[in-house]
Every structure is written in C-alpha cells, then in structure tokens.
Amino acid sequence: xxxxxxxxxxxxxxxxxxxxxxxxxxxxxxxxxxxxxxxxxxxxxxxxxxxxxxxxxxxxxxxxxxxxxxxxxxxxxxxxxxxxxxxxxxxxxxxxxxxxxxxxxxxxxxxxxxxxxxxxxxxxxxxxxxx
Length: 131
Fold this sequence. Notes:
Elements: E1 12-13, E2 18-23, E3 26-31, H1 33-39, E4 42-47, E5 53-54, E6 59-65, E7 69-73, E8 78-83, H2 85-89, H3 92-96, E9 105-109, H4 121-127
Antiparallel strand pairs: 1-2, 2-3, 3-9, 4-6, 5-8, 6-7, 8-9
C-alpha cells in the first residue's frame, strides 16, 4: 500500500495542483492531496455537466472549502464524459481520497500529448511536500 504522502506515479501534475491520469480513452482529473490539505475541509464540489466542451486552460468546475473556493482547470481540450456524482454528494472524499474516490471529472481529450509537459509524481512531491 502506498503512503498517503506520496502522489501516484501514474498521474501527471500541474503547479496549480490538478492531477491527470489516462485510463484507456479518457483522462481522469482531480486535485492533489497537497491542495486538499491546503483547502482544509472541502464542503462543496461543483463540476460542469457531462457533455460540456472544455478548452485547454478552462475550468472544469470548482471546489469549495471552509477557507476558499478554487477553480479546477484542465490542461487538455475535450469533453466531459463523466462527473463524479459520489464526490458531489460527499465532498469530504476530496480530502480523504483525492486520487481514488475523490476524482472530479473524466474527459475525452482530443490529444493527451500535453500531459507529457506536466510534472511527474516525484517532481511534484519534491516541489510540494506534505506535512
């Protein structure tokens, strides 16, 4: 079992704390454990609906906490093909399991090549250590 202080090696990461994981022909998007910890208690997750077309750099939705509201951005263009309804009902999953049950949206991306320019887990964790 991996320790919660380590980001998964099968994801790519942005400086704004989004993660992207390719699963077959979709890309799963969420926020990192570092971001979840910084937000503290997540109280609301509002993602754009399934079918929404997203441009590179556009928001896919927002995450609200007791501290602030933060937009979640996509580095990929595409269409939202699934929204995590479980996390919409239980936003605390973003805090407790951001890389698992706390994912936010799945995108059908036109091109995933942009992910290669993002940080790998080791680089992200070195830049944004937990604890």
